Amino acid sequence: MPVKVGDRAPDFVLLDQDRVTRRLTDYRGKKVVLAFFPGAFTSVCTREMCTFRDSLSQLNSLDAVVLGISVNDPFTLKAFAEHNRLGFPLLSDYSREVSKAYGGLHEDFLGMKGYSVAKRSVFVVDREGVVRYAWISDDPGKEPNYKEIEEALAKVK
């Protein structure tokens, strides 16, 4: 079952693009935007992560942090972050467990048998670790509604 509004956000331990261990609980006391994306260096994912990058000052003013999550390895994520000058952590869910727990996976992605990627999804987690916004797309080409995300963050006290 995907995570829904009102659920306690499942904690996780993932490596970021610098192979530093990150836990969701490390961000307790802050609002967190979890942005799952199918794959680094693809057009829609690049646009999405760059939109978050370009919105960081607005998101920071709402006391929120962004964590990008994909199934890519930390080395690919580091290159992706550097190439696009992303100023937030990208987390490697190479085991796919966190993607499965939150929004699900696209199995046999683009006809590649056995290859699965995270469904594009966004979750807003409040300061206590409760999900206050959840959006999951079955269409990997669809971007989230960024205004809705900001509105959800603004509602979280």
List the helices and strands and how they pair.
Elements: E1 13-16, E2 21-23, E3 31-36, H1 43-54, H2 56-61, E4 64-70, H3 74-84, E5 90-92, H4 97-102, E6 105-106, E7 117-118, E8 121-125, E9 131-136, H5 146-155
Parallel strand pairs: 3-4, 4-5
Antiparallel strand pairs: 1-2, 1-5, 3-8, 6-7, 8-9
Care to describe what's here?
- The model has no long low-confidence stretch (mean pLDDT 96).
- Helix content is 29%, strand content 24%.
- Strand 4, helix 3 (74-84) and strand 5 (90-92) form a beta-alpha-beta unit.
- The radius of gyration is 14 Å and the shape is globular.
- It contains five helices and nine strands; from the N terminus they run E-E-E-H-H-E-H-E-H-E-E-E-E-H.
- The protein has one domain: Glutaredoxin (3-Layer(aba) Sandwich).
- It has a seven-stranded mixed sheet with strand order 2-1-5-4-3-8-9. A two-stranded antiparallel ribbon has the order 6-7.
- With 157 residues, it is α+β, with helices and mostly antiparallel strands.
- The protein has helices spanning 43-54, 56-61, 74-84, 97-102, 146-155; strands at 13-16, 21-23, 31-36, 64-70, 90-92, 105-106, 117-118, 121-125, 131-136.
What are the key terms here?
157 residues, alpha+beta, Glutaredoxin, seven-stranded mixed beta sheet, two-stranded antiparallel ribbon, 24% strand
Total DSSP E strands: 9
Please indicate the count of domains.
Answer: 1
CATH class: Alpha Beta
Shape: globular
The biggest sheet, with number of strands, parallel, antiparallel or mixed sense and barrel status, is: 7 strands, mixed
Order of helices and strands: EEEHHEHEHEEEEH
State the distance separating the first and last CA atoms.
27 Å
Low-confidence stretches: none
**Main structural class:** alpha+beta
- Helix count equals 5
Helix share bin: 25-40%
Q: What is the assigned CATH homologous superfamily?
A: Glutaredoxin
Mean pLDDT over the residues: 96
